[in-house]
Amino acid sequence: MNKQEKTQEIERLVGILNANTKIYLADCSSLTVEKVNQFRRSCFEKKVSMTVVKNTLLKKALERANDSKMAEMIPALKGETALMLTDTSNVPAKLIKDFRKKGDKPALKAAYVEEMIFIGDDKLEALASLKSKNELIADVVMLLQSPIKRVVGGLENKAKGSEEAAA
After folding, report:
1. Helix axis angle, 3-19 relative to 55-64, nearest 10°?
2. Which is deepest, 31, 96, 98, 153, by most CB within 10 Å?
3. Does domain 3-130 fall into CATH 3.40.1390.10?
4. Residue 52's beta-bridge partner residues?
5. pLDDT tens digits for 139-150?
6. Residues 69-112: tens digit of each pLDDT
7. Based on the number of CB atoms within 10 Å of its own CB, is 26 exposed (0-12), middle (13-18) or buried (19 or more)?
8. Contact at 8 Å (CB) between 69 and 21?
């Protein structure tokens, strides 16, 4: 790769980093080629983009990204790095956890989720437990519906009670 190609790749990575708010860096070096392909397939099925990137190019892209917090992920760039991008914050963490149940060990290096940085494989559980935007909306709707249902139920019971008293 010549200098011009490297510059183009860095600019492409900067564009990707700036356009995404849910970025995971994973280490798949302990996986065989067959297992990496299975992991890629799992990512594709869950609408997670996964590409292997050169650490030196990704380091420069992280330094140039709009959000300076992304630079905190630079120390995690050791060994082979897979860049995972998604629209749902917890999906890549759940994919890694599910893949580990099969005995395989992709490791989480770092993650940038909603302007927060998570460094290290020990943060996998916390990331997997994050709720997606749709899950949060559903929780809020349920919380709003609960008191309304109680009021309507109380009014219905009171109406039935007054009908029985009048009869």
Report:
1. 50
2. 96
3. no
4. 82
5. 788 877 777 777
6. 899 999 999 988 999 999 888 899 999 998 888 776 788 999 99
7. buried
8. no
